[in-house]
Specification:
275 residues, alpha/beta, 8-stranded mixed beta sheet, 9 helices, elongated, disordered N terminus
Amino acid sequence: MAYRLFEGKKHVSSYWKYRISPPDHLIQQVIDFLEKQKGRPFELAVDVGCGSGQGTVLLAKHFASVVGTDVSPAQLEVAVQQANKPNITYRQSVAEELPFADSSVDLMTAMSAFHWFDRPRFLQEAHRVLKPHGCLALLNYTIDMELSYPDCCSHALNQVCKEFYAALQHYRSPHLGPSSIVLYREAYESIPYPDKEWQECVWVKMPMPLSSYMGLVESFSSYQALLRDDPQKATNLSQDVSQRLMSIMKVTSLETEVVVAVKYYYLLACKPQET
C-alpha cells in the first residue's frame, strides 16, 4: 500500500524551506542516460511524488513540458506558488494511477518519494506510461549526513549527528524497514529491463546554515512522528543536538554555515522497445 505523509501545513512549509534537491550534476547523469537510450528531443517529463517541487523545477530546462504529481493538495499549493517556469504544471494524483496515456512519457522521476509508494504497482504504472526507450529515474539520499566545519573535529560533530539519527530510528515507519536503500536495490533487481544502472554512493557536499541542517532532519518522517507522539521530547532533542553541535564548533549562532555531506543513491532504467 502507499502511504500519505508530509501533508500538514506546518510540515509542508518546512519541507519547502529545508528539503534539499539533487544537485545539477546528478540530474545531468539522468539526462545523459536518457539521451544515450532515447535521443532527443525530450518532450515530457513526469516527476511523481513531487512534493513542493524542488526537484521538478530542475527538469524544466531539459524538456518541452514537465508535470509534477503528488497526492497532497497542500504540497502542490506550495509547488504552484514556487513554479517559475512556463513549461511546468502540477496535477494531484496517486503514484499508482497516473493521469497519462500509455507510452506518452519520456522520463519519469521520483526524488525521495518512491519508498512511500505501493512499489510494485508504481513500477507497473511507470512501464505503462513510459515511451519505448523512455527512462525511469528513482533517486534518494540517506539520513546519515555528515557535517564539517573549519578547525573543528569532524568526528566529534558527527558523533552527535549519529546519536541524533539513532534517537529517531525508533520512530521510523515500519513500511520503510531499517534502510530505504534496500527498497531501491530490490526495485532495481526486480525491473526486467536490460538497460539499467544502479549507483548507491554519490556523496554531495552542500554548504548551509546549521539551522538549515537541523530543519532538514526535522522535516524527516521519523522526527515528525516523534513530534506528533511527544512534542516536548522532540523539541528537547533538537535543542540538545543544536547546543552540542554549536559547543563543539565554538560558535553561538545557529546561522553559522557548515558543510553537509549527503549520500545519494539512484537507479536508472530504460523501457525496451516492445515487440
